[in-house]
Please model this.
Amino acid sequence: MQSNKLGWFLLAPTLVVLFFFGVIPFFYVVWLAFHQWNPFAVNPEIVFNGAANFRQLVFDQGFLASLGVTIAFVFFAVTTELIIGYALAQAFMRDFPGKAFFRTIHTLPLIMAPIIVGSIWKLMTTPSIGIIPQFLDNWFGYDLNIGQSALAAFTVTVIMDVWHWTPLVTLTMIAALVSLPPDPFEQAQIDGANKRQIFWHITLPMIRPAILATVFIRLMDALRTVDEVLMLTGGGPGSATRYLGVHIFKEVFPKTNYGYGSAVSVIVLYLTIVVCWLLFVALIAPRNKKG
Amino acid sequence: MVAGGRAQFDGVTLRGVTESTPPSNFVSDVLAPKFEELTGIRVEIETTSWDQMYDKAIKDMEAGTGIYDMVYLEQDIVYAYLARDFLVDVTAALQEHPDLQAPGYDEANFTTFADNFRGENGGLYGTPMEAFIKVYLYRTDLFEDEEIRAAFQEQTGRELEPAKTHEEYAEIAEFFTRWGQEHDLDLWGTTAQAHTGHPASWYEYFESVAPTYGVYDWGIKPDQNYAASVENGGEMNSDEAKAAMTWWLSMRDLAPPESVQSTWTEVATTFAAGRAAQGLVYGENAAWIATDDSQSRVVGEVGVAMPPLEDGVMEDAESGEGYIGYYDGGAFGMPVTSNNQDAALLFMQFMALPEVQEDWAIAGSRITLNSTYDAPRVQEVDAELGGYYTMLRDDGRLFKGAPEYPFHRQLIEATAPIFYQILTGDLEPGEGLDQMAAKSEEELTSLGYRTN
Model:
């Protein structure tokens, strides 16, 4: 009983902060989603409009296009981060000269604010002055201009995200790999299993919870990417990199379309929950059932 | 300066938010510390990006949090802020508190640009702190080079002079882009503020290019129920607007490759780096481009001219029916939610004192007081700049700021995605402008300005 009280007492500050900065804003946004509110309209008042914002959203070509490019962005970014992150984790599990140094360097992008990452990549990719277009031109004769080519802009935003967040995946993979017991691996080797079989039948199933947790985190982050992309491309060229976060930002802030922007935010949150739930059902639930 | 004595303002800290521009940076770096030295009132000016500046100021004033005592009022947003009663009438406030009137502050000394910040009652709702025109800059070293002049004469049959028409401008742009290629130089014929994901490109077209074709006020007609399409009486998709867009896109193609990622800042940097022979550049950058060798490679090699025009546009401007380009600028306004209004009033007057103007005019290429034109250093730089300040004084009346609409950013954001598609080539200029006109009318109907 005593420990329960102490527990609640210690938790209280966090719960209070969460209530004011998480719960109240969340319900405020949900409430706004059912209203029309643009402070620079002829009528700047908040007016209840039922589900009109959601109805509009279903037919909003801008939103649908944004949803499409976001799904593509999330798929390519998160998949690449998982593959490279796992490969790097495996590399860091082995001893090699300068390992500590490389491990430190490799985590540096993680400590950078997204807006800084966007600025750095903007400097690196601006035609004529950026180091990347310069080398691509010198070595391959390829003219990289992310202000002109939709594919190039999309690819660069994916690479930027991979550069920024792969270290997080690597660290979680290292944590998962380090915690694996040696016995199953020794048994498998004695039974004559090759590396591929060991990876597929032992390593992967055993680190699946860690992979799933990492995918959840990265998926949620990637779905709400704003700062980096806004700084790098502004959502362009055209709407090629106008991901959902950027779309919501432009609806809510410059356009001050608070009601509709809130509706888009609620739908994006709903989609995020659904995707995470589907992943959970597909990857974790069958395992628990077997267990 | 502090008529009531310092004690009244002990411990007061004024907070302001503004866009990071040369004039604003001067306020933050020079005027704020100087004011603190004189009055003991600390001034913290947050200089941030254009988007963030609006975002922070609007949220603060909308929510009434009172974080900011001063907000940057760009000329194009002031009508929206006035419509929402966000701002304090400075004229009225000073009349109510004559004890706060600073010696040397005189509203009558402001240039006519200050009229942009007056309300319907004639009161001033902000202290003008930057004012400049978007000018046609050209490289005098190139335009006066004998070899280049001879080559130009040979190819075009005319003398190389700053362009007066769009055809001449295009001819010069084509010549210099070709010249750069033939001589292996990093030189292009023109600048272009043509970012494919930032409204800077929208602004360049609607505020600097379309007016030179006779399409004013974004092609929207407030007296015709805010019509934008030709069908309803607007001009956003008129033949002139389409010709302007086609011309501008062709200039974009002759500009350095970074132009598709350039806002107003990068355009100035491109010109300062010596990468363009001519261009339309925000005047706030003109002085540093022409005089600051720590930032510019074209010091002493910059000339200023009027933008190229179609027939009839100058006559429209002279008669007051039109204008030839963009007159931009801003002021510092005080939100009604400010908790330190008296102290803010003092600082806003301090910014308008004649004695702080001279260095500021040089640092930010801006003039907001009539008396500043006579300052010795301003006249000196004016000569180096080929008469930029003289043009601002004498011909400023031919330029115009953004139209008096309270829905600037809303309309821009609604139409910008279509505009960017024109830039990327996904839409033809004609089709794109048709769609933009329709979208504008739809948005204005949704906002309640246009009635069906």
